[in-house]
Write a structure and sequence with these properties.
With 554 residues, the protein is an all-alpha fold. It contains 22 helices and no strands.
Length: 554
Amino acid sequence: MGAVDVGRRVLGLVTPAPERTVAALHGTEAPAPGLNPRELIFLQHIRWFGTTGSLLMAFGALGVGAQPVRQNPTFGIPVLSLPARMQTSAIAVTMIGTVIVVLAWLLLGRYAVGRFADGTPPRRLSRGQLDRTLLLWIIPLAVAPPMFSQDIYSYLAQGEIAHRGLDPYALGPEPALGRDHVLTNSVPNIWKSTPAPYGPLFVWCSRGIAAVAGDNIVAGIWLHRALALGGVALIVWALPRLARRCGVAAVSALWLGAANPLLLFHLVAGVHNEALMLGLMLAGMELALHAIESAAPIRGTNLTLLIGGCAIIALSSTIKIPSLVALGFVGMALARRWGHGWRGVLAAAAATGGIALTTTLLITTASGLGFGWVHTLGAANAVRSWMSLPTLIGILTGFGGVVLGLGDHTTAVLNITRPIAAILAMFVTLRMLLAVYTGRLHPVGAFGVAMGSVILLFPVVQPWYLLWAVTPLAAWATLPAFRIPTIALSALVSVILMPRGAEFTVFQIVAAAAATVVVVAGMIIATRTVLPWRVDDAGAPKPFPHRTPYAERP
């Protein structure tokens, strides 16, 4: 075998059997009947069970959420300030609510995806039923104090810096606003001197919010949350459409992607700008792929959709740069349609790249923020995240060196592992791009796999970063080999984080966790007849004592 053949195999240009590639994760989902009357009753109970958990989280967050250091709106109010005076109890209430929402999501999955052991089409809830359930779970978290992260206060401070005419890409909150400024006080210490690591579109939005809210922290949080909810709405709009392109049930994709506790807890409750980034990215992909996969020529409406979709993806990258990867997969899909070998690839790259460059220049120029954001993209690398594979290797190696008396070489090891990981991520992304061009993978699935490798090998991985890959893959990957680990990881990561995004004392955590186990176990026992805890409860319908013609309908 020559070097050329080896290179073609390494890059995936030699088409292997589908079952030996990531293509094996995808399968077409057949239409399924709706829920029968018994299952509809279970669905109603699951809906309110999850809503109860969401309400408990919202109430507990009044005491242990990421409340501002100053301008806390619940301070001194008789009922609303009670959780803050009973912190351990508030942690327990929040933990109980978190576990209940996760359990409700898992129970709902039986009617969105079906049982993995049964090869027959499962009964599946309708899109409207899922939308109403998701809305009920979101509302309490949308009005609760921020949870699981204090990043919202960095957003507010960076917006105020830009509003004052200062450069948020050169100055952090403390140097720009002062140590005693009301917005600086609530920014975590690690970020008080750090310039904004976000793109110009998001900082531009933050500046607009600062112009409206001023130093009013509560008003600023509400406006940022409205922005995040707009992003969630875009996700809910785009995800089922992308799923239909891949032959996947819309409710399956929405359940795993949009109703995922990671999204509820971190994009809605945590007010992270990933909501807007993901919403724009997925919406842009849907518009662009609608034009590319259309049987009609790419002109007129289709040309408008293609240009608009690419521009919207570029807009998402001016919030956080990783979403720009999606544009590469749209470009490869376009190159495949055009054909003509490498000339088609270069033409598609020039077209999509030109749209992205134009959009980025327009946003950068219109915002007046300049190009300083290019130099601050790696600001988050100061955090050592255990969820990042190269960082975890560096941390464990450094710890081993300390134990063996060889010294702490963590930084030196990270300087080796992180570049290697970046090269591996680029290699996997290149293979996925070529898989799209050769027609082996749909652009949505290939993009999801590429983002999964980027997240795994990224220098810093936060829990909500998992959504970068989970949301597109939810619209494409259907096999248990993907869904079961993704469901398990989403559930696990959702319940292990503290509601403030910071540590509490060991006693508080242990006591709250013990209370959570006891209360949740009691609730499971108490609801054993009204919720489908047993597998057979979610399976075939059981006869009713008094069957009517209406009860026989699915």
